[in-house]
């Protein structure tokens, strides 16, 4: 840019320059400066139209799992347990929950309500000795914040055989867990597994598009069968439990976060069918 200004200045000092020539050279100087500024801005902020919610290379090309023609999830009619942390103090663990590590209630700019910030390598459980009812539904929200979705790691939720908060549950095969649904943000898939029935399947899901958004989870458990939905996309619908299995809900934060990534949890509703 400095080089262009020197050229223009030299030309304008040339003897005999007309007013029209001077105006032309002034416009040329402004165009050159605008071009350089635009190039620098693109290097800093990325191409126009790019979004912080996707991967660095842009939106995911992976399709959503096929949606049902008729959305079959129906919430239970009788409320069993609910918590949106409305009465919990900021900076503290919510009163009705326990964890294997830590966690605190926060508010998030431009997002309504209160949220439980999920500390890395930590599992969260309802602080109650009551097991889940026989047939029931579970709904909750996950809020994500990250530069890239893959910075979040794997978030896991499911059911365990007891309600002890002694350790961190990573999947369906450790620490007395029964099922585990893992949201793999870094490689864009969801894994559903059961240590009871030996189910273990994965399907693609464009999770790189969900680095700064709310994900809604819906689960329906009827006897031995479990259905799980993520934003109305069905993730699993099969036998995941042995007959008359006692089960307790859990949610595990990612093992680690990269950069300033963070995941939050709120708006849990459990209802009997």
Q: What sequence of helices (H) and strands (E) makes up the elements? A: HHEEEEEEEEEEEEEEE
What kind of sheet is the major sheet? 8 strands, antiparallel
Q: pLDDT under 50 segments (min length 5)?
A: 1-17, 31-57
**Helical amount among residues, as a percent range?**
10-25%
Distance between the termini: 70 Å
User: What percentage of the residues does DSSP assign to strands (E)?
Assistant: 35-45%
Rg value: 26 Å
Look at the structure and give the mean pLDDT.
Answer: 84
- The total count of strands amounts to 15
Structural class: mainly beta
- The count of helical stretches stands at 2
Give the overall silhouette: globular
List the helices and strands and how they pair.
Elements: H1 2-12, H2 19-45, E1 78-83, E2 97-99, E3 104-108, E4 111-117, E5 123-126, E6 135-145, E7 154-160, E8 179-184, E9 189-194, E10 200-204, E11 214-222, E12 225-230, E13 233-239, E14 248-252, E15 262-272
Helix pairs in contact: 1-2
């Amino acid at each position: 840019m400095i080089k262009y200004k020197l050229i223009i200045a030299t030309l304008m000092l040339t003897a005999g320059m007309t007013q029209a020539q001077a105006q032309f050279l002034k416009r040329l100087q402004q165009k050159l400066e605008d071009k350089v500024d635009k190039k620098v801005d693109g290097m800093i902020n990325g191409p126009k139209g790019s979004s912080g919610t996707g991967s660095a290379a842009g939106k995911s090309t992976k399709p959503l799992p096929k949606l049902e023609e008729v959305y079959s999830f129906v919430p239970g009619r009788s409320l069993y347990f609910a918590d949106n942390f409305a009465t919990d103090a900021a900076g503290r663990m919510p009163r009705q929950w326990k964890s294997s590590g830590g966690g605190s209630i926060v508010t998030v700019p431009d997002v309504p309500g209160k949220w439980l910030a999920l500390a890395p390598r930590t599992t969260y459980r309802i602080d109650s000795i009551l097991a889940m009812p026989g047939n029931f539904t579970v709904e909750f929200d996950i809020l994500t914040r990250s530069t890239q979705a893959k910075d979040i790691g794997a978030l896991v939720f499911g059911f365990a055989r007891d309600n002890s908060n002694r350790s961190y549950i990573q999947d369906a095969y450790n620490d007395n867990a029964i099922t585990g649904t893992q949201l793999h943000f870094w490689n864009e898939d969801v894994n559903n597994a059961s240590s009871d029935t030996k189910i273990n399947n994965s399907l693609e899901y464009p999770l790189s598009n969900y680095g700064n958004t709310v994900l809604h989870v819906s689960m329906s458990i009827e006897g031995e069968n479990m259905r799980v939905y993520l934003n109305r996309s069905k993730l699993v619908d099969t036998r995941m439990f042995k007959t008359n299995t006692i089960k307790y809900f859990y949610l595990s934060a990612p093992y680690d976060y990269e950069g300033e990534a963070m995941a939050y949890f709120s708006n849990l509703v459990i209802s009997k069918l």
